[in-house]
Hints:
10 helices; Rossmann fold; two-stranded antiparallel ribbon; about 40% helix; globular; about 20% strand
Amino acid sequence: xxxxxxxxxxxxxxxxxxxxxxxxxxxxxxxxxxxxxxxxxxxxxxxxxxxxxxxxxxxxxxxxxxxxxxxxxxxxxxxxxxxxxxxxxxxxxxxxxxxxxxxxxxxxxxxxxxxxxxxxxxxxxxxxxxxxxxxxxxxxxxxxxxxxxxxxxxxxxxxxxxxxxxxxxxxxxxxxxxxxxxxxxxxxxxxxxxxxxxxxxxxxxxxxxxxxxxxxxxxxxxxxxxxxxxxxxxxxxxxxxxxxxxxxxxxxxxxx
Length: 256
């Protein structure tokens, strides 16, 4: 299974929980023109269509664009770079980006590009994971790796995945880019898993940098990390037989 398909299967049910809040923060409504940056499998684009707005989804991954075209035939899609958007200044009424800015090489450049293609008075809205804490699934993952493996294993060059993962940092990044009326809001959401091994499996099939971090561990460390994650997930096991793991997000928004 390629990562694009793995993301759709394992992550989309989780990240779809922030879709409505992301569109609300960007002021998406009927008849406006929306750009969906890092569209992935097209969840935001599909919701924009339901609001009777026009949407163009962009992603650097050709396979993701193929999935999005299949999922949202009423939207338009384009392979492209979030750090160099192929649009004129002031082309869109709203710009949204779901969990994508954390994966680009130069996130601040991507934010600047989103602002550039917005019309004056338009809104941008981006979602990211909240920083790792003892109270969320991201924290459980990284604590398990820190205890039983190595967080400093060599990985391809990339940005800090959590540089926007506190409200203060999100606000600062958007204001630094030139946005006004900036807001940042924590959105509670839960990853529903049927098996304690599903968290690691989802990361290996659909993750990006977290997947690379796990792949770089030696075999004994991988086994110990998996066991630690399984043990840690017990606190989230519910009476209906489902693990409900807190995976909060932060949605930042601002006006050009």
